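#struct-help
A.M.: can someone run this one for me? Single chain, 208 residues.
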Amino acid sequence: FNCGDSSSDKSLVTKRFTNPLNGLRDSMNKLKAKALEQARELTEPKDQKREVKRIQSSNTEFFNEPISFTPEGVLRDIHSQAPRAGLHIHQDEGSDLLDCNRYGNGGGGVQNMGLFIKTLVEAWTSPLNSTIRRANTDNNLEFHNQTITLTANLQLRFISDILDFAEDSMGWTSRCLVVESINDPNAATAIEDHRTDADEAAGLDRAA
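D.P.: on it. Structure tokens below:
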């Protein structure tokens, strides 16, 4: 969790890693679009249908910045990844995690472990290998060593709502790393002086 007040440039700091990830995601999506275009040019209808279906079902979305989401949606995103693949979620406004955790747990905060946080705790212990069974077996979700990571910007006043430092029997708080983003002009100058050529080429913003 990258924490700070509203003027601490939290978003500028996280753009140091979200910009490159977005660039890589865009490149992979272009490759997928090109593969679909080539598949649709196959002359044999059966081969064309099979190849298009294969490409469309292959999830290469390894990085996600959702506006809003539910625990079930996150689980389906992980489930759709290939075995041993990873998914990284970034939230520019980390307080949205509270809404996700409240979904289906009676409106409680982190003290009432919702499905979302339970999934993260399990995934941060070892790769997911569990199965979620539903009354309708078509909705079952099976995991095959997929992993998930999470980063979020968080205003300081929300820390106690997201992390419970007094009681951590589930291990949620102990698995989280909290850093403070400080808008320090001197630090910004130092970082600017050490920007690499790769940073310049990627057009990354200055971090503070």
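A.M.: thanks! Strands lie at 2-4, 63-64, 86-91, 131-132, 141-142, 147-155, 179-180.
D.P.: also worth noting: The radius of gyration is 20 Å.
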